[in-house]
């Protein structure tokens, strides 16, 4: 009777269910697929929180080894739109260096990303943790108060001064306020057993003890021995870099087919860059770290993404962080060739539609015909790869039935 | 009506209908069970689109068992598989619900529905036929007129009872999504049909139009967060109906308030217990059935693990909650994998609203006595095959040591599920549907 209650397998199972529901007699069952999408969302949230914990911990270790000025370099380099070097950054490293101007646009940009991606988690988190006002707004204002430790908006210098960040240390990071859009059920806390990584573990708390100069920026955000209620273990335990920090150039759109009116609508979404790249070989991510569960993708062939490669050439000069060579896409050949256009700058509609089509097979020929490019045959469903895809598309799977 | 609840009375096996083989033909899977208003007729619908109606024999005081048996009365094909060419969708012929109309004349009427189309069927008896035609032989061949020498008047002669079912109305093309409920209004002139996102109001005489009274479809389907899972008219107030959602809420609407009842009059919702949060919280809180009590004072909802009784006057929590199979809470992941977590169990009241019943796995079904607060688990199995065999209560051992006669959670057969049960409106007779068999149990008569 036992089954693996890990996020990755749940996501695979859920995707398989959605896919097979297409071929079942009687058509797509809206109710069942809605429920499956909730499981998908829950599993993905857990998966992401685990990933972030891992990334954050790794990045913290890095920070401890690097001198502060070096970090400033990174900060200066990590302008918005170039999250390549941000893969392992703590939130404070994003958004540019110490000067306010660099911060502001970055802050606004990051804020926008965060808004897009964290709509789901806000209300629940806020209710449960009873934390003060949303970081996003506080962060955008550049004010360190308000527990914005998680965000990139904090100036790098502030990050390096633990005393300033002291008020934040005690607060676990939280996602931002939700956007105005109505949402599915808010983020549920996972049972403690499901969240093996606790950011309140000692490892994450090593930062404050480091000398101020070398303190990792994330120290401001780490919640050492935080008195957060044990009764509400959250998917987001805090101290994680916000997923949107990585997602700058991976935003995309979701396309929905309305059964009644047969209208195809496209909605903005955000992608988790870290996950859409999903492997150590992502050219955009610099030192993209394979998170838990991604080891399974190791055996897949990679496709080379010339487009992304060019774009990230500059970022690779960041050097220290760009240790990994650009290796091409994490998506296996059995994905539609469409993915070469995955870069959202070129054709967000096409990429997302190809996402959907490759997951759901050829049933959406109506959508395909609207996109002249998307004319290849859908690949056979690969549960594993679709899991990657689902993880990559933060926004798309938070909703109910996409393209039903 | 006998007093006492599910535990004061002893339930005995009475009959079982259906094939004996373990190999179940998909078309034979029972998908709905419903007694008519008198309890004399019992209708079942199956996945193959057929309706089978059983009729209770008249009580025979001479025989030892006081209640008549149910025998097949009529069988007909209600719905056929269809194909929607516009959307390239196959429409299943599976009968989702049957609802009887109260009897007004010699004929019986029922509504049956599949995913898209509702049909009104007239079931009538014919036990006489005209005989003695002049121009026709008894077998129907025409006689040569020149051989006719005398004339006679045809007369009605008794014949073997023939039960005919004919479709009187077909209510089609009103639902984009899958119909999950139909409910006849207490005015006996109108009825509602509910799909995932909309509820329509029909007049029984009018098939070419219906009123949409609830529409929860969001402007942007991406924002869809819940669907309608069941709907029912109030048994006494013809302006009141309720509908349940996949989020575990029930909305009571008053049709007098506005033409479109998108704004509820009452919202019944119990706050979620945060300590029970899991990946599957949304699934197990989805309500699979809602039923008003006969009195109209209460309503009962069934979600995956429990049955809740709500007082219509109290919206913030149910007045009673009964755990059906709480031992499954730790198995939700496996149940998700094998799709059992999506099973939609129904529930029903007894005639006096004192006992409620619902199904479970391993062909178990459960009864909860609201007065004594006792519950009982029984099994529908051909092993207890002899009539008037008293059913032995069953017990599931959740963990730890398994006592004798208990069954452990891991040995439960999740393919044997009882989704549909019905209780005679007046007597202690229950109809319990396993996958492809219909069991009838009655209380022990001394």
UniProtKB/TrEMBL annotation, chain A:
<feature type="region of interest" description="Disordered">
    <location>
        <begin position="86"/>
        <end position="107"/>
    </location>
</feature>
<feature type="compositionally biased region" description="Pro residues">
    <location>
        <begin position="175"/>
        <end position="191"/>
    </location>
</feature>
<dbReference type="InterPro" id="IPR008653">
    <property type="entry name" value="IER"/>
</dbReference>
<feature type="region of interest" description="Disordered">
    <location>
        <begin position="122"/>
        <end position="231"/>
    </location>
</feature>
<feature type="compositionally biased region" description="Low complexity">
    <location>
        <begin position="216"/>
        <end position="231"/>
    </location>
</feature>
<protein>
    <submittedName>
        <fullName>Immediate early response 5 like</fullName>
    </submittedName>
</protein>
<dbReference type="Pfam" id="PF05760">
    <property type="entry name" value="IER"/>
</dbReference>
<feature type="compositionally biased region" description="Low complexity">
    <location>
        <begin position="192"/>
        <end position="208"/>
    </location>
</feature>
<feature type="region of interest" description="Disordered">
    <location>
        <begin position="307"/>
        <end position="327"/>
    </location>
</feature>
<feature type="compositionally biased region" description="Low complexity">
    <location>
        <begin position="122"/>
        <end position="143"/>
    </location>
</feature>
<comment type="similarity">
    <text>Belongs to the IER family.</text>
</comment>
<feature type="compositionally biased region" description="Acidic residues">
    <location>
        <begin position="308"/>
        <end position="319"/>
    </location>
</feature>
From TrEMBL, chain B:
<dbReference type="InterPro" id="IPR036322">
    <property type="entry name" value="WD40_repeat_dom_sf"/>
</dbReference>
<protein>
    <recommendedName>
        <fullName>Serine/threonine-protein phosphatase 2A 55 kDa regulatory subunit B</fullName>
    </recommendedName>
</protein>
<keyword id="KW-0677">Repeat</keyword>
<keyword id="KW-0853">WD repeat</keyword>
<dbReference type="GO" id="GO:0019888">
    <property type="term" value="F:protein phosphatase regulator activity"/>
</dbReference>
<dbReference type="GO" id="GO:0000159">
    <property type="term" value="C:protein phosphatase type 2A complex"/>
</dbReference>
<dbReference type="InterPro" id="IPR018067">
    <property type="entry name" value="PP2A_PR55_CS"/>
</dbReference>
<comment type="similarity">
    <text>Belongs to the phosphatase 2A regulatory subunit B family.</text>
</comment>
<dbReference type="InterPro" id="IPR001680">
    <property type="entry name" value="WD40_rpt"/>
</dbReference>
<dbReference type="InterPro" id="IPR015943">
    <property type="entry name" value="WD40/YVTN_repeat-like_dom_sf"/>
</dbReference>
<dbReference type="InterPro" id="IPR000009">
    <property type="entry name" value="PP2A_PR55"/>
</dbReference>
